[in-house]
Structures are given as structure tokens and as C-alpha cells.
Amino acid sequence: MRVFELGRYNIPDEIIDSWIEQIGQNLLPVQERAIKRYRVLDGNSLIISSPTTSGKTFVGEIVALKGVMEKKKVIYLVPLKSLAEEKYLDFRRKYEQFGIRTVVSSSDHREYDQVIEDGDFGIAIIVYEKMSQLMVKNPFLLKNTALVIIDEFQEIGDPHRGPGLEITLTKMSTSPYRPQILGLSPVLGNTETLAR
């Protein structure tokens, strides 16, 4: 599948052109499969389990930008503060020029917490544990959220981080607002069980 074909999903030409500059003309196999076979751009939730550098993170970006273009909110969850900072700077660098407001929330970054609670963002990068806290504070947090991306989804099996992520996922699944969920992970053992 060619990158320019993503235009049919209401992603502006300027963003598609910037993607072509970054990654080239063609999507990688995992990206094409997520779009064509699993219909992730049609709102289907999915866990993408594939090796590092296979292109799964870019699937998240594509789906995120589609959501933002539809005037919906996107939440991108990460396990670590350092990863939150990295993603925040990366998304700002790539998408601020297109008017997409990216914010971050972690124990080091509290300045956007109220902005996130008010829903005044396009993409919010949030550490797992912080997301759980924000959902307790504001039960309507997911109301206008189209997509929640969970990066490093394999952390659900970690004895320290896993329980916090599980609690967050449980809160999401019991919320009256059900966003699309996209889990990104290196190769996992039993994705069928996790998906259920």
C-alpha cells in the first residue's frame, strides 16, 4: 500500500507529504496488514505484536492523526516518564506545524493536567499510572476520545507496572465511553487471551 492512499481517510495532503518524506512511498507489511486486514482505520481495536522497527509505532501515528482530523482526542499511554518526554517532543516536532496540540502528563509534567481534564488537546502523551489518576479525577475523560494507544503493551505482564495498566484498562472497559484501543508491543506470547 502506498502512503498517499491514506488520503482517503481524511488525512490532509500536507501530513501525508511529511510522512512520505520521513518513511518513503510505501507502507511496511505490518502497517498495510493493520489497515487492510484488521481495518484499524475503521475503528477496530487491535494489539500489534511485532518486532522492533517493524513499523507498528507508525500505525499508531496514522490512526491518531485520523482521530485528530475528525476532531476527536487521542491518548497515547507509555510506561515511563522518559518515554513520555521522548514521544511528546517527537509528536510536537512532527505535528505542531499542522495545528495539532500535543500535551504530556507524568509526575515530572503536571502543567497540562488541567488541559487534559478539560479535553483541550489533540494528542495527550500520558504515563500509565497518571492516566489512572486522571480517570479517577475526571470520569468523563474518555468522552471525546476516539483512540487510546498503549505503547509497550507487554508491560501488562510486568509485576510492577502490569497491575497499574490492568486497572487503567479495566476503567476504560467499564467506562460508558469506549474509545478504540491500539496496543503496541514487541512479540508477545498469547495475544488472543490479552485481546479478550
The number of helical segments is 8
Main sheet record: 6 strands, parallel
Unreliable stretches (pLDDT < 50, length at least 5) are: none
**How many structural domains?**
1
How does this model look, in words?
The chain is of the alpha/beta class. 40% of the residues are buried. It is globular, with a radius of gyration of 16 Å. Helix 5 (113-118) links the parallel strand 3 and strand 4. It has helices at residues 13-23, 29-36, 56-69, 81-95, 113-118, 128-137, 162-174, 191-195; strands at 46-49, 73-78, 102-105, 123-127, 145-150, 180-185. The chain is built from 8 helices and 6 strands. Helix 6 runs parallel beside helix 7.
Question: What's the helix and strand layout?
Answer:
Blueprint: H1 13-23, H2 29-36, E1 46-49, H3 56-69, E2 73-78, H4 81-95, E3 102-105, H5 113-118, E4 123-127, H6 128-137, E5 145-150, H7 162-174, E6 180-185, H8 191-195
Parallel strand pairs: 1-6, 2-4, 2-5, 3-4, 5-6
Helix pairs in contact: 6-7
Short structural description:
The chain is α/β, with parallel strands linked by helices and 196 residues long. The protein is built from eight helices and six strands. α5 links the parallel β3 and β4.
